[in-house]
Amino acid sequence: MKNKLAAWLPIGVFLSLTLVFSVWNLVRPTRSFSENENRYLAQFPEITPEAVLDGEFSEEYETYLADQFPLRDSWISLKTRMELLIGKKDINNVYFGDDGWLIDKYSGTLDEDRIADNLSKLGDFTSYAAELLGSDHVRVMLVPTASGVLDNRMPPFAEDFDQAALIAQAAGLCPDGVTLDLLPVLSAHKEEPIYYRTDHHWTTLGAYYGYAAWAESIGLTPYAQEDFTVETASDAFYGTTHSKVNVSVRPDSILRYTPNWPVSYHLTFNLGEKESDSLYDETKLEGKDKYSYYLGGNNPIVEISSSSGEEGRRLLIVKDSYSHCFAPFAVNHFEETTLIDLRYFNLGVKQYMEQEEFTDVLVLYSTANFADDRNLNTLVK
């Protein structure tokens, strides 16, 4: 009898836990957004005969269960701690580097066919833009991620996707001189805080070095760091990389570079949805996603006028969120700067350029985001 009880006990515990979690999932409200992970969570999928038969429903339901799992953040933290105890240095596509560094891992996660297709579209678009504006007024910056620059922070034997090759391929498909290689620029400053320790973005200091190289490449004189007053907007920033593992590490700081000369800005968001006279959104510092302090986060289109910009010069930035802390430097050289995010921008970029009188174009993405982007069809329409 005791042997039978011992045999059935683990099964009983498992079934009881499954029942408890199932009931919990049914009675508690479904979460739509995770502030900790800064993303929308999967919702209960629609049940249709087609979705059930082709397996789509089961896949979406599995994602739904994972996203809506009770105490998800606590389970992520527990799982991370257990794997660290057994010596793992790569957990949930995050490398654990020296001195509390959390660095996103992209090796093995990217689709080579998509990369090739995105590079082809980039070459097509930049050829069009260079013919329209002149190649001296068109630039591509595929910014290397921390894993491609901070070999001094990566754990031993950590792998990275070949970011140098990606940048070289882009240079081969774009008109001569259009692609700006930031690998040597950023590598020269790798001992400085040019990336966040808990997030996948470059810092404002890293963006400054990128800005200086870009400005020089198009004939502008970049402002020196001494031309700005540097202030700490927040010293309690935990980024998206931290959210993947949810362990205790030191937070990052959000910095603001304010020009030391009189200048005013006016921002129009999403064709008049909202307006502002500041490049920064102070309200974002109250939540988890403090990186959205820069330009208010992700928007389809942001138009910025600057009183210190060159009259008649208009810049278009086709971008991901790496541009958000870069733009506050660039806007000081242009009368108007427009940033578009292809994830939300429905008009074709070529069509848009035909409507507007831009003088300069910059395509600014991190290498990883560019490689994985599914929206570059908009670039060539």
If you had to describe this structure to a student in words, what would you say it looks like?
This protein folds into two domains: 2-71, no CATH class; 102-380, no CATH class. It has 381 residues and is α+β, with helices and mostly antiparallel strands. Helix 5 (112-133) packs across helix 7. Strand 3 and strand 4 (94-96) form a beta hairpin. The model has no long low-confidence stretch (mean pLDDT 87). Helix content is 36%, strand content 19%. It starts with a helix and ends in a 9-residue tail after the last helix. A seven-stranded mixed sheet has the order 6-14-12-13-11-9-10. Strands 3-4-5 form a three-stranded antiparallel sheet. 35% of the residues are buried.
Describe what is shown at a glance.
The protein has 381 residues and is α+β, with helices and mostly antiparallel strands.
